Amino acid sequence: MQKHSTLGEFIIGHQKQFKYSSGELSRLINSIRLAAKVVNHEVNKAGLVDILGDAGDTNVQGEDQQKLDVYANDIFMETLRNRQIVCGIASEEEDDFVTISGHDGSNTNKYVVLIDPLDGSSNIDVNVSVGTIFSIYRRVTEPGKPVQKEDFLQEGNKQVAAGYIVYGTSTMLVYTTGHGVNGFTLNPAIGTFYLSHPNMKFPEDGPIYSINEGNYVHFPQGVKDYLKYCQMEEGDRPYTARYIGSLVSDFHRNMIKGGIYIYPTSSKSPQGKLRLLYECNPIAFIAEQAGGFASDGYQRILDIKPTELHQRVPIFCGSKNMVAKAEEFMRKYPQDAYYAKQK
Ligand code: P6P
To answer: What is the span of the domain harbouring residue 273?
Structure first.
């Protein structure tokens, strides 16, 4: 692959790869790039500016909205709206999807974006990494007409692009358009993303499992069995537990070092916690494009037919051999019992 040094050059250089390449998707990725830089600027100084603490509001999830959550959502929504490149947006921070109409009221744009503008935001006040996750589809309803819910309720295997920004020790944008996964690191001094992780690949196995073991007593038996397998492996234990409490950071580390991230159902979270449309599907698309896998314990995440905008699903994602082993333990218990028990 010809080495492109900046994200802008990479997008242009790879545009022809994309069978629908009319330049719209490139412009869409570029607008996400701009919004990421603006959000990064605020995230990096959250401790200095009176932007900490609750915005005093709660989102559709009933979670306290941190001011930075609200800010990030506003930035991504406005950047996508102003550039007139999408016909609709669904966000964790918006109760329903938002129709974007053109300046003249019509909108012939063909893409919709689903986004978690600032995942892991409870970590903001304690200076731990947070992230943005996005997912892009072609609309399925008639172009030019207002978008419908069905434009957003598409299986993850229909995604045309997905990615995340991790605001960590460095800020990275990692994304796929279905031709592998590439990572770009921001040079904040000049505001440019440089290709730092070309053609990222999930190791088939790894040393890390990431799960909130504080919920152990609430986990299904299959998850408990898998954790005991990880901890009681014969000889030297090959596994170490790493859990940041920020999906993007845990996933990103596991993609580089090898590992599995699990957020299962539990008696506290009967359907799991993570959202299918703007957390699990984009992460699953990236995982598979990097040679990993993502499952709900029984079926491929990308094949789940969505029924609601903010629906939750359990997720096991990462190194494909580790996900397969976890599924082996889950399948010892009938899925209906598993789900029936959780409902
Ligand atoms: P818990 C953050 O709220 C998040 O959605 C993910 O980023 C993270 O992995 C998970 O929830 C943490 O949830 O229940 O372990 O605190």
So the answer is: 208-342
190 lies in the same domain as 279: no
The CATH code of the domain that includes 275 is 3.40.190.80
Q: Take atom 9 of ligand 1 and give the residue whose Cα is closest.
A: 247
What average pLDDT does the chain have? 89
- Cα separation, 167 vs 40, whole angstroms: 6
- H or E segment at 181? strand 181-187
Does one domain contain both 335 and 311? yes
Beta bridge partners of 166: 131, 172
Residue 122: pLDDT over 90: no
Q: How far is the CA of 8 from the centre of ligand 1 (A)?
A: 32
C-alpha 56: how far from its chain's center?
26
Q: By alpha-carbon position, which residue is closest to atom 13 of ligand 1? A: 245
Ligand 1 center to residue 246 CA distance, Å?
6
Provide the domain count of the chain.
2
Same domain, 67 and 91: yes
Q: Which helix (H) or strand (E) holds 138?
A: strand 130-138
Indicate whether 71 and 181 sit together in one domain: yes
> For ligand 1, is residue 245 a contact (CB within 6 Å)?
yes
Q: State pLDDT tens for residues 257-316.
A: 999 999 999 988 899 999 999 999 999 999 999 999 999 999 999 999 999 999 999 999
Q: Is 246 in the pocket of ligand 1 (CB under 6 A)?
A: yes
